């Protein structure tokens, strides 16, 4: 006899999925880094940390370019710190959006099952953790920029979830408007469409994969010091953040690969929305940047910030020298450019493997065709054309 009270989907009905959710939540809570991250952020002192590398040297701003080659040891350390500030400024932007979407997804999932509360509690924990992450990234990033430039270069004032996610992306104002319209539509529909809500976690999973790839290397940097307590605070934040994020990644995988099995199949509208979102993600991740390995920024959007950086007391160039350095770094092939291209290729491979079994995706999305069309030659072409436009008289 069927249970007259079982009108909705049930997590407990599939013990394999229920156990994965419970295990992930238990481990995430046990290793929760929120307090540690808050403590590190409150204790951060730029002067105490500035004598050390915060990331492995190859994760420095404009590493492997003519700027890096001619930089003094002090300047290289500053480029290493600037990488940290800029890298996590992008992560901050993505996490502001994540907080919002986690809450929408939790609202959508909560009513879809009789017992979906553990899914929602997991998303709540992660939302709370992201706020601590953002606080730490902003605290360190702003102190770096205040000390080095007395102004913002890569950080920005706190903002809302509808802002453009890519801090230095190629999107014009129309694209930005369209993106924000799509987010608003998702927010309006998803609470009522649990299948859509669960698949948001697939997009989050793709974006997290990219972070995972780089942050694993940043987190390992503490091993270069004798003991955790001796590592500079930003390196310790990288480590603690990576611990939290590895559970977020598990959550994304469970929710997007397993939970939909408990829900109605996606209808035509939902399939379209999900494909649109993956395509948007590909679009965001099409460029790769010589300045910052592992963040898919549109280099020309960085030109003004780099001119300011080159002319700052750290590098002390005049206008002509700064322009020439910009040309050499952004429009010529270099070891740094090759390293960024390699990270981009790895990301494409990882994204493909991640969505491989998601049947509702179009072949163009499953194979990440848009992203994989991007290569070193095309990036150099884009950068050169933009340089000529910027400095044409
Ligand atoms: Fe985070
Ligand atoms: Fe996260």
Summarize the structure.
The chain has 393 residues and is mainly α. The chain has one domain: Ribonucleotide Reductase, subunit A (Orthogonal Bundle).
Topology of this protein?
Layout: H1 15-30, H2 34-43, H3 46-49, H4 66-70, H5 73-110, H6 117-148, H7 173-189, H8 194-220, H9 233-258, H10 268-284, H11 303-311, H12 319-331, H13 335-355, H14 363-366, H15 369-372, H16 376-391
Helix pairs in contact: 1-6, 1-9, 2-6, 2-9, 5-6, 5-8, 6-9, 8-9, 8-10, 8-13, 11-12
Bound molecules: fe (ii) ion (FE2) (2 copies).
CATH-scheme architecture: Orthogonal Bundle
Structural class: mainly alpha
C-alpha-based Rg, rounded: 22 Å
Percentage of helical residues? 55-70%
The overall pLDDT average reads 94
The CATH superfamily bears the name Ribonucleotide Reductase, subunit A
Describe this entry's structure for a reader.
Helix content is 66%, strand content 0%. It is mostly helical. Bound molecules: fe (ii) ion (2 copies). One fe (ii) ion binds next to helix 6 and helix 9. The site of one fe (ii) ion has 5 residues, from helix 6 and helix 9.
Keywords, separated by commas or semicolons:
393 residues; mainly alpha; Ribonucleotide Reductase, subunit A; globular; binds fe (ii) ion
């Amino acid at each position: 006899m069927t249970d007259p009270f079982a009108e909705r989907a049930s997590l407990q009905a599939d013990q394999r999925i229920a156990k994965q959710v419970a295990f992930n939540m238990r481990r995430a809570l046990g290793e929760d880094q929120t307090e540690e991250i808050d403590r590190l952020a409150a204790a951060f002192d730029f002067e105490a940390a500035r004598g050390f590398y915060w990331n492995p040297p190859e994760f420095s701003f404009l590493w492997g370019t003519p700027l890096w080659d001619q930089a003094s040891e002090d300047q290289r350390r500053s480029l290493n710190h600037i990488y940290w500030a800029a890298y996590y400024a992008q992560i901050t932007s993505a996490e502001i959006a994540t907080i919002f979407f986690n809450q929408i997804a939790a609202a959508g999932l909560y009513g879809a099952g009789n017992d979906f509360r553990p899914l929602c509690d997991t998303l709540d924990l992660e939302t709370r953790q992201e706020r601590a992450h953002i606080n730490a990234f902003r605290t360190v990033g702003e102190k770096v920029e205040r000390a080095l430039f007395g102004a913002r270069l890569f950080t920005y004032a706190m903002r809302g979830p509808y802002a453009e996610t890519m801090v230095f992306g190629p999107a014009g104002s129309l694209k930005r408007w369209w993106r924000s319209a799509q987010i608003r539509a998702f927010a309006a529909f998803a609470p009522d469409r649990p299948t859509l809500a669960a698949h948001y976690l697939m997009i989050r999973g793709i974006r997290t994969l990219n972070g995972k790839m780089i942050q694993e290397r940043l987190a390992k940097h503490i091993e270069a010091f004798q003991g955790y307590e001796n590592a500079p605070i930003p390196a310790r934040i990288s480590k603690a953040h990576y611990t939290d994020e590895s559970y977020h990644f598990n959550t994304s995988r469970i929710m997007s690969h397993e939970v939909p099995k408990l829900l109605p199949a996606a209808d035509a509208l939902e399939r379209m929305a999900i494909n649109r979102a993956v395509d948007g993600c590909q679009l965001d991740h099409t460029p790769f940047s010589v300045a910052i390995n592992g963040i898919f920024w549109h280099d020309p959007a960085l030109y003004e910030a780099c001119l300011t950086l080159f002319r700052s007391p750290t590098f002390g160039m005049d206008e002509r020298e700064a322009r020439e350095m910009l040309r050499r770094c952004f429009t010529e092939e270099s070891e740094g450019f090759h390293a960024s291209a390699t990270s981009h290729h790895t990301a494409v491979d990882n994204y493909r493997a991640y969505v491989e079994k998601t049947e509702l995706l179009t072949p163009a999305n499953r194979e990440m065709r848009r992203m994989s069309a991007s290569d070193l030659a095309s990036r150099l072409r884009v950068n050169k054309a933009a340089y000529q436009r910027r400095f044409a008289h």
